[in-house]
Amino acid sequence: MRAWIVASFGTPSLVEMPDPVVGPGEALLDVRSVALNYRDHLMMRGSYDPRQKLPLVLGSDAVGVVRELGPGVAGLSVGDRVCPAFHSAWIRGPLEEGARRGTLGGPRPGVFASRVAVRAEACVKAPAHLSDEEAATLPCAGVTAWRALDEGNVQAGSTVLALGTGGVSVFALQLARLRGARPFVTSSDDERIARAIALGAEAGINYRSDPQWGKTIAERTGGVDLVVEVGGAGTLGESLRAVKTGGTIALVGNLAGLNAEVPLARIFMRGVRVQGVLVGSVEDQRSLFRALEAHPDVRPVVASVHPFEQLGEALERFPEGGHFGKVVVRVAT
Prior knowledge:
The chain has eleven helices and 16 strands. It folds into two domains: 2-137 and 300-330, Alpha-Beta Complex (Quinone Oxidoreductase, Chain A, domain 1); 142-276, 3-Layer(aba) Sandwich (Rossmann fold). It is globular and about 60 Å long. By secondary structure, the protein is α/β, with parallel strands linked by helices. The longest helix has 14 residues, at 138-151. It has helices spanning 38-45, 97-100, 132-135, 138-151, 167-178, 190-199, 213-221, 236-242, 264-268, 282-294, 311-317; strands at residues 2-6, 13-16, 26-35, 56-57, 61-69, 81-84, 115-119, 123-125, 159-163, 182-187, 203-206, 224-229, 243-251, 273-276, 302-307, 326-330. The two termini are 15 Å apart.
């Protein structure tokens, strides 16, 4: 099989490797498509976990077809098209420490390969109406957005602010609309704001022309019920301005830095809940897939599709941003 690995922190390499051997409780997948995440770039650079054992097969998002099943597997058949969950050991309930160590693409081997062996219990049948490229985007960005909405108890009439127009934020916009909520977005680009509004956002704010975007959102809405916070240190202050008293900030990323001076009074004086979201469980993924099957008009937004041979180049360029939705790589042709 072919796989994209990082042998030493830095540039990834496309290599030939032996096919994985399927073990008890595992499924061997022929990978169809994969999707890129900022985490993959950080893992490649050694910024995410400098203690990660190498070499490592990169990648956390994929869709594939079951080629072989190991002993003891129930509920899957050869030929099923499935998405392996990011957390191979977090099946349901709250996240526990042991499950946190079972994530694909570090510390466990990832999915940027033509074949992968994954825990069968963590494989969820992909929504039949979605293409391979669309389905590949779901396990990380889609589930993260879905879990964030659950953490914020988002329902009809709720207000949601999604920061930016990357994968998680576009999913948050779409899935908030699916629940009957009122989504808002930020972006540095007016054209992307227009695309977000066409997709269902109630309004957008250009954070370059309005650096006090959190205050502006609060004045317009009275404070949002949920902020899907992907920026981290560089945006948390304004997110705390945007959220309403008693609202939730779902902290899902750190695109704008890890270490922040946090205005704590805005949290405890207003009863704001800051909740870390590390994707979600297998059951969260099943719940998302059921929702998408019930609303086939809601389709993942694919920004671009690249051949497998160009995955390394696409991953190197990923932090440049500028994409609307998800960057996808087609593995099987």
